[in-house]
């Protein structure tokens, strides 16, 4: 009878794992599913910035989705690989230049291909956060992401020509309205944000009611209309790494927190209205300007107001080099999340393909700090979607085999779902010991779900210790340990779980 009961439990868990992904919301500053389990996500950015190198159905910015390719795909095999290493979410860029290449006209073929990609992720219970990626606005301003038409209506004709005041003006092609790639390569990409043209473009984008602002609102309105019914979509990030605005007309925007309050607050409040008119339950992810690392964010409230705290997520980026200490930066943002009553997630940090000891240590320290603050995270970047001359694939070097040092670092043991309130969890990359402490929610019908990459870290097996032992029952399938509250478990009972390799 005992064996039969175990088989029934395992069969039920397998059926649950293959069901449609559960819809997410934010509760108590954490993600939660429909069963009110707290949920945690580890994943990768899937951002195809390449407009023309590989075209799918003659549509730019789309990964190959019908077969696996080391450099160009996001296919079923890609999803199987990532979920096998415990990565259960992607930050998917739906490029405005792909979605709305002409003012007022949407490329529905592009949006349909993105829908197919989202469905491929859903087939393995992988979640998707949708963002509109841009760096330095538009290709017509030596950047990427936003369409040329948006830059044209955002930059005043009287604004000093690109790249003033940093260098002499570049020649602009009269047909494409673009500077040459050779000219754009003369400066570091991030320098272009400090050109008068880009400063003016961002200011017009942020100013509610301008043609550029209305065009961007139209883009988000259509994106939410198109994708809101996917249960594995866990929200929308309004803009990637927003610049401060026109720092030449208002130099105070360079002061930390000022641009958040002056420019981004009304911009985000307006987008909140646009998005929530289409999806009242939408979770909105939002960033500050990139130099607000260690100071409080300048927002007065989450996008749309404090009534949407439980539908809002602070998004932050961390890179060794320009940023200094992950613990300090995450502590600052955690304080912001407490002040606003929102959740918090690390949406970019470097997954370094070089696999040097220092690179692996930097990655581990960043993920350790994220664990301390119970933050979900997204590594940058899954693939470069360029040919191999651009650089090595993070997961597959040019010979197509796994980059095992990176895999071993990223495929951490962690709780994907907690049937209760999480107090603490941590993973030691050296010993492969994982600790979870939480207060049981006896009302949860679904189990705590701990991911562990058996073929990476526990080839000779693993042990699970639960204290007290009579509060939950254990079961498992490949790469997952499940802990289900017993019928006699009292609500709020404190449980400690330790998982380690068999000695």
From TrEMBL:
<keyword id="KW-0326">Glycosidase</keyword>
<dbReference type="Pfam" id="PF18564">
    <property type="entry name" value="Glyco_hydro_5_C"/>
</dbReference>
<feature type="domain" description="Glycoside hydrolase family 5 C-terminal">
    <location>
        <begin position="412"/>
        <end position="499"/>
    </location>
</feature>
<dbReference type="GO" id="GO:0016042">
    <property type="term" value="P:lipid catabolic process"/>
</dbReference>
<feature type="signal peptide">
    <location>
        <begin position="1"/>
        <end position="19"/>
    </location>
</feature>
<dbReference type="GO" id="GO:1901136">
    <property type="term" value="P:carbohydrate derivative catabolic process"/>
</dbReference>
<dbReference type="InterPro" id="IPR041036">
    <property type="entry name" value="GH5_C"/>
</dbReference>
<dbReference type="GO" id="GO:0004553">
    <property type="term" value="F:hydrolase activity, hydrolyzing O-glycosyl compounds"/>
</dbReference>
<dbReference type="InterPro" id="IPR018087">
    <property type="entry name" value="Glyco_hydro_5_CS"/>
</dbReference>
<dbReference type="InterPro" id="IPR013780">
    <property type="entry name" value="Glyco_hydro_b"/>
</dbReference>
<keyword id="KW-0732">Signal</keyword>
<feature type="domain" description="Glycoside hydrolase family 5">
    <location>
        <begin position="79"/>
        <end position="383"/>
    </location>
</feature>
<dbReference type="Pfam" id="PF00150">
    <property type="entry name" value="Cellulase"/>
</dbReference>
<dbReference type="InterPro" id="IPR017853">
    <property type="entry name" value="GH"/>
</dbReference>
<dbReference type="InterPro" id="IPR052066">
    <property type="entry name" value="Glycosphingolipid_Hydrolases"/>
</dbReference>
<comment type="similarity">
    <text>Belongs to the glycosyl hydrolase 5 (cellulase A) family.</text>
</comment>
<keyword id="KW-0378">Hydrolase</keyword>
<dbReference type="InterPro" id="IPR001547">
    <property type="entry name" value="Glyco_hydro_5"/>
</dbReference>
<protein>
    <submittedName>
        <fullName>Endoglycoceramidase</fullName>
    </submittedName>
</protein>
<dbReference type="GO" id="GO:0000272">
    <property type="term" value="P:polysaccharide catabolic process"/>
</dbReference>
